[in-house]
Design brief:
- The protein has about 550 residues and is an alpha+beta fold.
- The chain has 2 domains: about 280 residues, CHASE domain (Beta-Lactamase, 2-Layer Sandwich); about 180 residues, Histidine kinase-like ATPase, C-terminal domain (Heat Shock Protein 90), CATH 3.30.565.
- The chain is about 50% helix and about 20% strand.
- The protein is built from 13 helices and 19 strands.
- The strands form 5 sheets. Strands 1, 4, 5, 6, 7 and 8 form a 6-stranded antiparallel sheet that branches. A 5-stranded mixed sheet has the order 14-16-17-19-18, covered by helices on one side. A 4-stranded antiparallel sheet has the order 10-9-12-11.
- Helix 8 packs antiparallel against helix 9 and helix 9 crosses helix 10.
Length: about 550
Amino acid sequence: MASETALPIRRFRRWLIHYPRAVPVIIFLLITAITALSVFAIERGERRREQATLGETAQVIASSLDRRVNTSGSYLIAGASLITSLDRVPADLFRRFATELRLDADYRGSIGIGWAPIVPRRQIGAFERMVASDTGTPFTISPRPAPDSNFAVPVTFFEPASSGRSFGFNMYSEETRRDAMQEAIRTGRPTASGPIELIRDRDTGNLGFIVFMPVFEPGTERELIRGFVYSPFNSQEFLDSVLTRELVGQRGVRLYDGEAAPANLVASHAPGRITGNVTRIEVQLADRPMTVEVESSRGDALSLLSMITLLFGIAVASLSMLVARLLTQQAHEDQVALDFYAEQNSIRNSLTRELNHRVKNTLANVLSIVALTRRRATSLEEFASGLDGRIRALSATHDLLTQSEWGTTPLLAVLEAELAPYANSAEAMLDLQGPEVDLAPNDALSFGLAIHELATNASKYGALSVEHGKLSVHWTRLGDELVEVVWQEGNGPPVSQKRSRGFGTELIEKIVAHELKHPVDLDFAPEGVRCVLRVPVRKPTEFRMRAKSKRLTDDMPTD
């Protein structure tokens, strides 16, 4: 069970290590996506609630408008019933009728109530005189009926009279009013006109509509029409009369004659640009199709809850990304440290094996030196002296290797270490020339031992034993992995050709040649000893802990 739980943790840790920047970005995008979905869900719910509220508001407004028109229609029907029972409509009687109606708040939006009889063309003059006599003011029908019309429908009475109606205006001369009158005659019910300008005098009128109720002669079954009781409505006041702050608030409300189109707009409340979140309801107002449109005040902005959710989600996403970035960075650094310690452990093990190998080689060289020295020595003092010099040569080269942390050692440094005892007294006698070359530890030990034997022999019998002797050591590269070193003595005592092979010769030709894996050419020429050694050139060792530590430290991220 524990292993099953640890497996996902290890996988997640590997993700943190291998993708240190991708994981925080993925977490940020994931939380952001969840936040966006939450905001989308909240907005969808808010818009649905808003849409339901808009529908309810539109329904209430449409019902209120319909109720006001129906109330007005009831007054018009009452007036039509009264006029039907009269032979003539006197001005005082119509005024008393309008006064007794006591128009209350339900009649708001209507300018008043009026009477417009049908006057045949041939009776226009007599009708004008009768009305002027009845009202005590001049009365003229204008405009006169068109040639194709046999009658006029003039505005005769209107209450309240202070409304400034244009008395005598022939409403049948205007197409919009005429169409509404004809439709009212056809249906026998209150009928609304299309949009018109209500005031017909010097001033520009306000947009509105008129509800006409036909008055028929009694007992004629709608065959003889006497005129129309009508009520004009100011469209804007009519719409405002049903609107309250509690009902609409900051929402936009529009009333259209017919379908909702800019050309059909007759009244509006808090107009603004259409945001697309609107509700429309068609309503029949006095047999006239109209459209009520309610627009949301929200527009395209996010709701308060959506804004809080969005800001909180972004904050959580940013914080999570920061925490994930810190965790990935820490995991990466921990992994780099683990890799470094594992590599150091591997290096330590390798160095231990390498050290064991080098100690064995060094002890083998020492045993060989001891054995050869013992065979060639004739006395204990000669044995101790020879062994002491050769051990010191190994020690000097070991010191160089220790300073380089058992890495590569410059060839020139080995020469200077072995020839140091002779440089102080005969510095001008030495000529060391060649390119910079580095030797591997084992090769440096063997090469140093060979130089020590040649220097010891030269100090006893050769160029270093006399005041004017010369010693040149020149080396050149034979390739990328091999260098040739030439030891040449000169101006020294003649080299005896009758001599036995000594320990130095055997050491150089056997041990050194074996260790360097290349033959050594040793020539005891009369003019001076010449020795040619071929030494392998190695690259820097891969077991230097300090170099590895620096490289691994540089690989660690700093951000």
